[in-house]
Amino acid sequence: MGWLRHLLGDRVPADFDGSLDDGEHVVGSAAVEGGGYLLVTPLGLWIPGPRRVGWHLVGKAAWSTGVLTLTESEETGMAGDAVLLADKTPVRFELARPGKVPILVRQRVDGSVRGRYRKDLGTGGAWFVERKVPGQDGTVLQVRPDPGTDVDLVKAIAEEAARKLAKPDS
Q1: CA distance 125 to 140
Q2: What is the pTM of this model?
């Protein structure tokens, strides 16, 4: 069975000290310069620490000259059924031998997005993104206001948008 795992890519590095969920498997991994690993699974991206960032919470992932820059989003509140997000400070991971990791990350992040819309407002704007949450049925509406945008206005718009998505005929 070891050859099948090798062929299919389900290989957890021997010194990885995280704990995958039951049924979670690795589809790609790369050692991070300075220690730790990036592991790609259907549920998210494992980063050094180790901890998993769900695909629905990857705000941005950029690959350039041997560095994967990850901007993780954090949930800051709710507006009806919509989830409000804010971006954390981007983190850089230097990968000497990235293998398939950059491609897999891009595919997984893009695959989690079902639709997106940019709403410009007088004091800024917000991204409205409908995403699939790994391991759950259906989608969730996420709203990421620009810094300085009127959050109460964004919340009101987000609540209405989430209501319309839940009942498209109303």
Answers
A1: 20
A2: 0.90
